[in-house]
Design goal:
Helix content: 25-40%
Oligomer: single chain
Order of helices and strands: HEEHEHEHEEEEEEHEHH
Distance between the termini: 28 Å
Strand content: 15-25%
Radius of gyration: 17 Å
Strand order of the largest sheet: 3-4-5-6-7-8-9
Largest sheet: 7 strands, mixed
Length: about 260
C-alpha cells in the first residue's frame, strides 16, 4: 500500500483501518470514565479528553500503517491545518457527537474516510457505546459488524452485509439531527411521506440509512466533511462507480459547501 492515488483500497486495508478504529473506540470509552476536561473551541463546540485520546491513537497508528499519508483530522486540523491536501487522504472525525457524550447519551461515533479525487472511496463509522461498526468500499459492498471496542476486525462476533432499502409503501422512516434540525430540513420533511421520525446525534444516522433501518436523513444546514465523508462512502458502497441506474447518487464529489475547517 502506498500513500498516493494508486494505493490498494481492498479488504486488507479495510480490516487494518477497522482495527485502528476499534482501538480508538476503546480509548473513548476509557476516557469517558474519568475527567473529560471539557473546553470550548473557537466555534463554541465542545472538545474533550475523549476526542483527543481517540485522535492521538488514530493518527499514530495511521502513520505506522501508511507512513507519509496525509491525514486531515478535526482537532489537529483546527490547530495546524495542512498546507496542501493531496489527491488521496484520510479524513477523520475522532469523536462525532461530543455533545451527546457529554449529555450521557450513547449516540457518538468515530468516522474515518479515505478520500480520493474529491470522492470518499472507503468509510468506517463506529458507535463505541453500541459495539457496532458500519464499513464499506464504494462499488464493493458494505457490512455491519458487532465488534467489542478494542477487538481487532478479525474478532467481530457478528458480520452482516448491508444495503439501503427501497422506499417502503407504508411511508419513510426519517432520522434527524437532535441538535441541528433547522427550518429548511423541517420543510423538506413536510413534503415527504414520513411515517416515523427518530432524533439522534452523530453519524449513526448514516449507519441506519446504510443498513436499511431508516430511509432519509435531511441535513440542509452547514456541516463539515469529516462529519459526512465516511457515511458518503458507506451508504452507497454497493453501487458501482458510474452506474447510471443507481438510485442513490452519493457516488460523486462531496458538496463544495461543506468545507474542511
Amino acid at each position: 500500500m502506498r500513500p498516493d492515488d494508486t494505493m490498494a483500497v481492498d479488504g486488507r486495508l479495510l480490516d487494518e483501518l477497522t482495527t485502528i478504529v476499534s482501538a480508538a473506540a476503546a480509548a473513548i470509552l476509557a476516557a469517558r470514565t474519568g475527567s473529560l476536561e471539557v473546553r470550548a473551541k473557537a466555534d463554541l463546540s465542545p472538545v474533550t479528553a475523549a476526542d483527543h485520546a481517540a485522535e492521538a491513537l488514530i493518527l499514530e497508528r495511521l502513520a505506522r500503517l501508511l507512513p507519509g499519508m496525509c491525514v486531515v483530522s478535526e482537532e489537529a486540523a483546527e490547530c495546524a491545518p495542512p498546507d496542501r491536501i493531496p489527491g488521496s487522504f484520510f479524513l477523520v472525525d475522532p469523536l462525532d457527537g461530543t455533545r451527546e457524550l457529554l449529555a450521557g447519551r450513547d449516540e457518538f461515533t468515530i468516522n474515518v474516510a479515505l478520500v480520493s479525487g474529491g470522492c470518499p472511496r472507503l468509510g468506517i463509522i463506529a458507535a463505541p457505546a453500541w459495539g457496532v461498526l458500519w464499513r464499506g468500499i464504494v462499488g464493493r459492498g458494505a457490512e455491519r459488524l458487532r465488534l467489542a471496542p478494542g477487538t481487532p476486525a478479525s474478532g467481530a462476533y457478528e458480520r452482516s452485509a448491508i444495503r439501503s432499502r427501497p422506499s417502503p409503501p407504508s411511508g419513510l422512516v426519517a432520522v434527524v439531527s437532535r441538535s441541528h434540525l433547522e427550518p429548511q430540513s423541517q420543510a423538506l420533511l413536510a413534503r415527504l411521506p414520513i411515517a416515523e421520525r427518530h432524533a439522534c446525534g452523530s453519524a449513526v444516522k448514516f449507519g441506519q440509512i446504510a443498513e436499511g433501518s431508516a430511509d432519509v436523513y435531511p441535513r440542509l444546514s452547514a456541516t463539515c466533511e469529516w462529519d459526512v465523508a465516511a457515511g458518503h462512502a458507506v451508504v452507497p458502497a454497493f453501487v458501482a462507480w458510474g452506474d447510471p441506474s443507481a438510485v442513490n447518487r452519493f457516488n460523486g464529489p462531496m458538496p463544495a459547501q461543506n468545507p474542511v475547517r
